[in-house]
Amino acid sequence: MTRATVRSARALLTAVCLCVSAGMSLAGQTGGSAMAPVFEIQDLFKGVRIPKIVVAADGTVLAFAKSGHLLRRSADGGKTWSEAQEVGSDAGGNAIVDEGTGHVLVVRAGRGYLWRSRDHGKTWQREKIVVKSNAVGHGSPDSGVPASTGASESGITLRHGKHKGRLLMPARAQPPKGNNDQEWW
């Protein structure tokens, strides 16, 4: 073993021990239940396997059907849920919470708009957005290869650095027919 490997192993072991001891003291202070995660399977949307989840600025948990047009809200950390409500008939895409404003956005980049909630997911308004193409000219709604945010994860707000406050949303651009003759895979 090299010195670097031994140092790395020693640092990892120390970190694990610190985490375990911190968890044990926390569990001791709270009667032992703080460190016991609970996983409960809930069928929020009939026929939808993978809901998208974000937490609004007020702590409300928002679960969106995969397409992003239906939403269920929970004010108690996911124990109970509201009935499904429609964000918008043509809504879809990914959700993101703008941590600067507290607004919740459902971005439909491929169509050039988003849906915005200023009240933690209770009501929604549609807004037009500008989507710029990437370096090879793909991504904007009129590029012929629009960006899709529908099958991606939720976005984030950058908290540190030069671009603090910037919203980042994963997206994909793929050829319309998906054949292997494309030069820009």
TrEMBL record:
Coiled-coil regions, chain positions: none
CDD domains in the record: Sialidase_non-viral
Region: Disordered, residue numbers: 133-185
Gene3D superfamilies: 2.120.10.10
Protein known as: Photosynthesis system II assembly factor Ycf48/Hcf136-like domain-containing protein
